[in-house]
Amino acid sequence: MSATAVATRSRLRVPGWLAPAGIAVLFAAGHLVFQGTGTLPHDNDAPQFLAITDLREWVDDNKNASPVFLYFINYIRLFVGAVFVAFQSVLHALGWPGLIGLMAGVGWLAGGRRIGLLGAAGFATFGVLGVWESSVDTLALVGTAVLLSLLIGLPLGVWAGRSPRLRRALNPVLDIMQIMPTFAYLAPMVLFFQIGAPAGAIATMIYSIPPAIRITALAIEQVSPVAVEASASLGATSWQTLRKVHLPLARSTMTLAVNQTIMMALSMVVIANLISAPGLGSDIIRGLSRQNVGIMLPAGLAIVVMAVVLDRTTMAAARRRAHQSAGRWRWPAAAGLVVGGVALTYALPPAFPGQWVLAMGGPVNDAVRWAEVNWYDTTEAIKNVTSEALLNPLQSLLTSAPWWLVAAAVLLLAWWSSGPRPALTALGCLLAIALLGLWEHSMVTLTMVVVAVLAVLVIGLVLGVAAARSARYSAVQRPLLDAAQTMPSFVYLLPALALFGPTKFTAIFASVIYAAPPVIRLVEQGIRAVPHTVVEAALSAGSTPGQLLRKVQLPMARQAILLAANQGIVLTLAMVVLGALVGGGALGYDVVSGFSQRTDFGMGFAAGVAIVLLGIMLDRITQGADRRSSPHRRKSV
Which candidate, 131, 132, 128, 129, places its Cα nearest to that of 99? Predict the structure, then answer.
């Protein structure tokens, strides 16, 4: 009996790292034996690519004959185009004084004088940067996409919040939509809606609708059951309960849904320029293609300012609605700002005054050249060490290993971390990538993601732990993280390109600074969530700060850290693919090439699908890791 107990106890004490270490050893041994066999090299003229290109040609040839296009898809495109034109016409008709006055008035209503001043100064910045026309077009595209997203997302979210069955049905769809990198939305838009503003608005709408549905459903679900029961007991119908109980009590959280929808739309509208959507994205894409930061920077700053203004305005509205109404005295002031701005439109020249425009292209390019010359040794050393020590060996390992060996390693790793069902899903995604003919490029993209995620996790752990253990440091870091999470993803390419030039490492660097803020936040929250009683008990037992961190805080924050790893992977994948515009290559380059060259459309479309499959595979590997029992919580028999 005692022997059995000892044997059981010894099995339960097997280190958690032993399984992944064993998988790595088996993979290394298999690679040494079968290296160079069973590889799947890339072929630009693969039959599946040509078949998809032929499908696009067939769709284009039959758009005016197919009932699906004649009576459904074409009308959607025309309707969305009309909404965009209406937004664009109104915003341009307001003129620069009118639009600045309108934003000042809206900000005043939402949050008082400070937000009103922020709105006026922020929108005036568009003119000072010399990108007023493009900014207005971007604002019109965002307005179109957000309006359509909310018209669909809010009612669907309310329904999902009141129907658990619908919510369970929607969850996997929303999961896939949020895993998909932004590039993956573009290919279907080109196939069905051609290129231009309608396709860009629809792609932006689809990308930004998940938070509208999720947050609205959460808001409705969190309404106090007591209030709902009281309403029903008083004889209110289901519709009356919705209007007079659910919606008023959920209003604040639903405003947050509007905020997140706007932020998601701003992240997408720039990328939508790849399918000829108008706005600031054209300047950024042009600057990236010419490696000219001076062209990119004004447009990038305008996107950041627009995001900050809209974010602060909607969040101020959410906070105010949670406690009090705007107050009658605010309405005359807001109306005066709007009327005054519109009146100035007719009194001042229609174009933003040229003498107020800040010419920054030349000085910015001079600064970039100075940094390239004076920081060359440092940036080259960082890039070369990372590439030679980590990036190139890992890429060589994955691309020269047999495809079946990589698939077996993914299956075993996902099975260990998340269980059999996610493991089979991950394996299916990997096999589908092989069938698409994009194995080699997918392995290169996977290499970049792994390197970026490792860097993100190191940074997230170091800075997250520091913030959790120091309130002063956290107070300094918090506004920086707020600003970083407000910026659209495209903006992160600017410093990366300026420092490192167009290379794979540039895409990795941009991915790291893009994904680090949410990872840092999650780690900090996980460490702070450790009960104070546990911390005090460990300290009273004589634990040093290092022992407290290693043996108490990190193990108990395991779930939050694994969630941070999952989010880091999803965000990094989205940004690594976007890094194709700064030399990242691989799947991202295939997507861009597919949009820019009609003959490569099949490859670009397949690459978009491969990106989605890669994202689902990585998500399935990590999503169940937080449900695995921790060695510290296992009970001995």
Answer: 132
pLDDT for position 626: 53
Transcribe 571-627 into DSSP letters. Answer: HHHHHHHHGGGGT--HHHHHHHHHHH-GGGHHHHHHHHHHHHHHHHHHHHHHHTGGG
Side-chain half-sphere CA neighbours of 71 within 13 A: 3
* 3-class DSSP assignment, residue 353: coil
Rounded to an integer, the average pLDDT of 492-509 is 81
Q: What's the gap between Cα 63 and its chain centre?
A: 33
Other Cβ atoms within 10 Å of 39 Cβ, number: 16
- Quick one: tokens of 559? 């779930």
**Cα 457 from Cα 569, distance rounded (Å):** 10
Question: Are the CB atoms for 554 and 561 separated by under 8 Å?
Answer: yes
Give φ, ψ of 531 to 5 degrees. -55, 140
Q: How far apart, in whole angstroms, are the C-alpha atoms of residue 76 and residue 72?
A: 6
Question: Chain-centre distance of CA 144, in angstroms?
Answer: 20
- 304: phi then psi, degrees, rounded to nearest 5: -65, -45
pLDDT (tens digit per residue) in 454-463 = 888 899 889 9
Nearest to 341 by CA among 581, 108, 24, 131: 108
CA 173 to CA 155: how far, in whole Å? 17
Q: How many CA atoms lie within 13 A of 316 on its CB side?
A: 20
> How many angstroms separate the first and last alpha carbons of the chain?
12
Cα–Cα distance measured from residue 105 to residue 140, given in angstroms and rounded to the nearest whole number: 18
Q: In the structure, what pLDDT confidence band is assigned to residue 160 with cuts at 50, 70 and 90?
A: confident
Over 60: is that where the pLDDT of 392 sits?
yes
Is residue 115 within 8 Å of residue 316, measured between CB atoms? yes
Token pair of 586 as six digits: 């691989």
Distances 513 to 156, 433, 518, 571 between C-alpha atoms, Å = 34, 28, 10, 10
**Contact between 622 and 569 (Cβ < 8 Å):** yes
- DSSP assignment letter at 63: T
> Could you give the CA distance from residue 95 to residue 344 in angstroms, rounded to a whole number?
9
Q: Quickly state the pLDDT bin for 632 (edges 50, 70, 90).
A: very low
- Contacts with 29 (C-beta within 8 Å, 6 or more apart), sequence order: none
Q: Determine the Cα–Cα distance for residues 488 and 490; give it in Å rounded to an integer.
A: 6
Q: What is the DSSP string of 483-544?
A: HHHHS-GGGGHHHHHHHH-SSHHHHHHHHHHHHHHHHHHHHHHHHHTS-HHHHHHHHHTT--
Q: Which of 96, 102, 525 is nearest to 339 (CA)?
A: 102
Cα distance between residue 625 and residue 621, in whole Å: 8
* SS3 at position 399: helix
Using alpha carbons only, give the angle 597, 600, 603 rounded to the nearest 5 degrees: 140
* Whole-number Å distance between alpha carbons of 321 and 607: 44
Q: pTM higher than 0.70 for the full model?
A: yes
- Is the Cβ–Cβ distance between 450 and 392 less than 8 Å? no
Cα separation, 186 vs 548, in Å, equals 48
E strand or H helix that includes residue 275: none
Alpha helices by DSSP H, 35-73: 47-62, 67-68
> Rounded to an integer, what distance in angstroms lies between the CA atom of residue 311 and that of residue 241?
31
328/308 Cα distance (integer angstroms): 27
The DSSP secondary structure of 461-492, one letter per residue, reads HHHHHHHHH-HHHHHHHHHHHHHHHHS-GGGG
Q: At a CB cut-off of 8 Å and minimum separation 6, what does 637 contact?
A: 5, 8, 9, 12
